[in-house]
Amino acid sequence: MVGSTKSVSIWRNDRILEPSSLFIIMARLFYSLLISLLSPLFVLRLLVKSVSEPGYRRQWWRRFALGLPSRIRSGDGLIWVHAVSVGELLAVAPLVERILLEWPDKAVLITNTTPTGSEQTQKLFGSRVEHTWFPFDTPLVTGAFLRHWQPQLIVMVETEIWPNVMASARDQGVPVALVNARLSARSARGYARLGRFTRDTLAGFSLIAAQSKSDDRRFRRIGAEPEAMHVVGSIKFDIDLAARRSQLEVIAEELGRDIKSRPLWAAASTHPGEEQLVIDAYQALSERGLSTRLLLAPRHPSRTGDIIKLLAKAGLKYQKRSDNLPVTIETDVLLIDTLGELSAFLGLADAAFIGGSLVPRGGHNPIEAAAWGCAVITGPHVINFATIVRDMERGGAIRVVTDQHELADRLASVWENEGQDSEARRARSFIETRRGATRRQLDLLKGLL
Predict the structure, then answer these.
(1) pLDDT tens digits, residue range 70-121?
(2) Is 61 among the domain residues?
(3) Domain containing 145: what range?
(4) What is the DSSP string of 410-447?
(5) 413 and 312 in a common domain
(6) Which of 10, 15, 198, 349 could form a disulfide with 266 if both were Cys (CB 3.0 to 4.6 A apart)?
(7) Residue 28 within any structural domain of the chain
């Protein structure tokens, strides 16, 4: 029914839709149509990416909720946890472990978007969880996915906000939580441009457990429901170093006694364009008379071939971790081309540069390096962890450098100056005072079951 131009409403399912509701319906229809039309390009992108990472074409049809596996674990209900890739999975792993321990009667499904995330899921949890790809965000796909798995609760991680997943969950009466939630200023501006569509999507969250007050403010500003918001801290502070120490001991034995024959530093989760800067810093240290050894861990191990070319051009002697050989006294660089071992390698290092920050990629998590007591260094591009880096910098737990020259200067000071032990203590203390987010988020999740 159409009324006057001042008061327009439409009947739907015996309910009157006001203009704002009509706008949201139309916006979702447009979004769904657009993303459906783009689905062939999505498949093409998977195939292109699979040239360098074959895992992208593995069971790609499951991303469209086709041929989904049957449940292997019995249980009274299922909790679906979505972690995009390795970073998100490692962040939420302590929470998943607590769910498995405290709710043994429930099955857990973990979905990923990237092959590296999938591999890490299988490595960490194996047959203890169900596992498949995250569904493509169209109504038919998300609806079929939820009907197949019938989750009792959906847990998204960090900034995973998918309109049709939310709509399908709402239609099927499944509560959705966003845990370890973070929202950068740049992302908040992007979501804000979508106005009521963003507000309606966020209204589907029964819980948004924000990492910081800044994240909480940004979520509220773009329309999150106040009663759903909680500031709980970051799960990433709840690091279980005990488990990692046993892995560290195994790795150290495999690498042999010469691994520590030189001052050791790590470049963790580096991106294209950044490895050259790290190599430049390494050579600058050599020119200053500091013969160090570099643990170089690219964010994506599939780029190993390109990095080897850079190392060879620089005349550096390198070994690959995947060769599983003891480090020789001549080795300048140990290239970490494996998954799931970076944290343990940080435990070997005296200092750690956190990648994705000397190039504009938003930076990566500095918490594990601090927990190990490394001298932690990052570049200026840290929008993904801006609050954590700011707080660490204020507490003297991290140093921010702007280029490879400052990186070399900072690294040199680690071994040339005294007082580094106090910095390591401040870094560890920073982590210890912020633990407990896993417990707080688990308690909040219990209220949704």
Answers:
(1) 988 877 899 999 999 988 898 899 999 999 999 999 999 999 999 989 999 9
(2) no
(3) 72-234+437-446
(4) HHHHHHHSS-HHHHHHHHHHHHHTT--HHHHHHHHHHT
(5) yes
(6) 349
(7) no
What is the amino acid identity at position 135?
Answer: P
Q: At what angle do helices 19-37 and 39-49 cross, to 10 degrees?
A: 40
Rounded to a whole number, what is the distance in angstroms from the first to the last CA of the chain? 40
Helices 420-432 & 386-394 angle (0-180, nearest 10): 130
Kindly state whether residues 214 and 83 are assigned to the same domain: yes
424 to 312, 418, 431: CA distances (angstroms): 34, 12, 11
Q: Which of 88, 274, 275, 423 is catalytic?
A: 88
Q: In the chain, pLDDT over 90 holds for what percent of residues?
A: 69
88 is catalytic: yes
Task: State which amino acid sits at residue 216.
Answer: D
pLDDT digits (tens, 9 = 90+) for 17-28: 455 677 778 888
Can you give the CATH number for the domain in which 250 is found?
Answer: 3.40.50.2000
- The long-range contacts involving 28-34, CB below 8 angstroms and separated by at least 24 positions, are 28/163, 28/164, 28/167, 28/197, 31/163, 31/164, 31/197, 32/138, 32/139, 32/164
Burial of 30 (C-beta count, 10 Å sphere; 0-12/13-18/19+): exposed
